[in-house]
């Protein structure tokens, strides 16, 4: 099922200030809805190294996530300003970055990706362009 989820991800060059049309695959969103418990458990226990029992409002968080996912499923054709979650600088040539004015708003810092294995001093994936 992960392949199905990845198949529906949009890729390309996006800017936060230019609206883009996106078509959400409802069956993929349903997969995410069906796996909210497992995803929360992995995020809390594996990534954050906390006991899931410590989360007092877990049911509220789960309900909020499911409502947002249900909205995506119900309105699959969207026109939105994209959020840029990851820019693989090794795979994108600098001229593309400069041409599309992706700098500096898309540079990730430790607050955006605290669990990233490459999020450490002198990581080669975090090169800024002068």
TrEMBL record:
GO terms for molecular function: 4 iron, 4 sulfur cluster binding; DNA binding; DNA-directed DNA polymerase activity; single-stranded DNA 3'-5' DNA exonuclease activity; zinc ion binding. One of its GO terms (biological process) is DNA replication proofreading. InterPro entries: DNA/RNA_pol_sf, POL2. It is an enzyme of class 2 (transferase). Keywords: 4Fe-4S, DNA replication, DNA-binding, DNA-directed DNA polymerase, Iron, Iron-sulfur, Metal-binding, Nucleotidyltransferase, Nucleus, Transferase, Zinc, Zinc-finger. GO terms for cellular component: epsilon DNA polymerase complex. It comes from the Eukaryota. It catalyses: DNA(n) + a 2'-deoxyribonucleoside 5'-triphosphate = DNA(n+1) + diphosphate. The keyword Nucleotidyltransferase applies. It is found in: Nucleus. Its EC number is 2.7.7.7. Belongs to the DNA polymerase type-B family. DNA polymerase II participates in chromosomal DNA replication. This is DNA polymerase epsilon catalytic subunit.
């Amino acid at each position: 099922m992960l392949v199905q989820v990845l198949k529906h991800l949009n890729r390309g060059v996006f800017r936060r200030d230019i609206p883009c049309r996106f078509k959400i695959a409802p069956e993929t969103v349903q997969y995410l809805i069906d796996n909210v418990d497992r995803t929360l458990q992995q995020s809390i226990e594996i990534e954050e190294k906390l006991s899931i029992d410590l989360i007092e409002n877990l049911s509220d968080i789960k309900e909020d996530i499911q409502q947002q996912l249900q909205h995506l499923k119900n309105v699959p054709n969207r026109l939105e300003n994209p959020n840029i979650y990851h820019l693989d600088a090794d795979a994108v040539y600098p001229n593309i970055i400069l041409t599309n004015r992706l700098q500096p708003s898309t540079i990730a810092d430790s607050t955006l990706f605290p669990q990233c294995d490459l999020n450490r001093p002198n990581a080669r994936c975090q090169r800024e362009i002068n």
